[in-house]
């Protein structure tokens, strides 16, 4: 388990240094609260959580604050350093395919300090090998 966690942490650290590729999908957010919750649940069923990298849908975007909603209905505000990995998607002149806007399906994770960060699923893969030195 410790080796798995170390590998996963290394891959996530690597991913934070990569260019933001954009949201995984976009949906239209209905103005009716019940319909909006259903739309969010439906799209997040197609984008399951990946360990501690959780799927969420963007509800609102400001230059220094993004509010997302999880499938359980929790709304999470992400600010400050939590926006750094996706800064190119928040720029006013961001290309449409990487633009973070309401209805965008994004990934969030907890930082070491306990704050929320916007992130993305890694494209790289990794593995670990364990050997018994006495048997090879």
TrEMBL record:
<protein>
    <submittedName>
        <fullName>CAZy families GT51 protein</fullName>
    </submittedName>
</protein>
<dbReference type="InterPro" id="IPR031376">
    <property type="entry name" value="PCB_OB"/>
</dbReference>
<dbReference type="InterPro" id="IPR012340">
    <property type="entry name" value="NA-bd_OB-fold"/>
</dbReference>
<feature type="domain" description="Penicillin-binding protein OB-like">
    <location>
        <begin position="20"/>
        <end position="124"/>
    </location>
</feature>
<dbReference type="Pfam" id="PF17092">
    <property type="entry name" value="PCB_OB"/>
</dbReference>
């Amino acid at each position: 388990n410790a080796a798995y966690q170390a590998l996963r942490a290394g891959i996530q650290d690597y991913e934070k240094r990569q260019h933001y590729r954009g949201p995984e999908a976009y949906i239209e957010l209905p103005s009716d609260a019940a319909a909006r919750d259903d739309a969010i649940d439906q799209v997040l069923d197609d984008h399951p959580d990946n360990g501690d990298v959780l799927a969420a849908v963007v509800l609102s975007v400001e230059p220094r604050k993004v509010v997302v909603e999880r499938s359980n209905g929790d709304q999470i505000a992400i600010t400050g350093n939590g926006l750094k990995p996706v800064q190119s998607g928040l720029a006013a002149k961001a290309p449409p395919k990487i633009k973070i806007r309401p209805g965008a399906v994004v990934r969030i994770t907890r930082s070491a300090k306990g704050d929320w960060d916007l992130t993305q699923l890694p494209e790289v893969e990794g593995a670990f090998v364990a050997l018994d030195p006495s048997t090879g």
